[in-house]
Amino acid sequence: MRTRKTFFVDSSDDALASDEELKTYMAAHQIETLSAAIKSLLDDEHRLNNQLDQANERASNVSESVQNALAPLEKKINFIDRNL
Predict the structure, then answer these.
(1) 41 and 25 Cβ atoms separated by less than 8 Å
(2) What is the pLDDT of residues 36-62, one digit of tens each?
């Protein structure tokens, strides 16, 4: 069974691609049909969202490891401050 999806490209919303932008995208990527262009855009969005999620996860891991590495140093500094 095939699922049909409806896209409206005549909206005045700035977040949506206009008809001219879609035609420019189609010409730049040598895509012949509007449906193929929309599918390509959605695939690109999915890929970029995955990359962003991976980058955010890496940043979180780096932040956590830096905090863990600095924790003993922070305790040492607090101990020195108390003794002064």
Answers:
(1) yes
(2) 988 898 899 899 999 999 999 999 999
Per-residue tokens: 24: 């420019």
> Could you give phi then psi for residue 38, rounded to 5 degrees?
-65, -40
Residue 51, SS3 per DSSP: helix
Closest CA to 23 of 14, 10, 11, 33: 33
Distance CA 3, CA 16 (A): 22
| Number of residues that this document lists for the chain | 84
> Are 40 and 31 contacting, i.e. CB atoms less than 8 angstroms apart?
yes
Quick one: pLDDT at residue 10? 60
The C-alpha atoms of residue 28 and residue 22 are separated, in whole angstroms, by 10
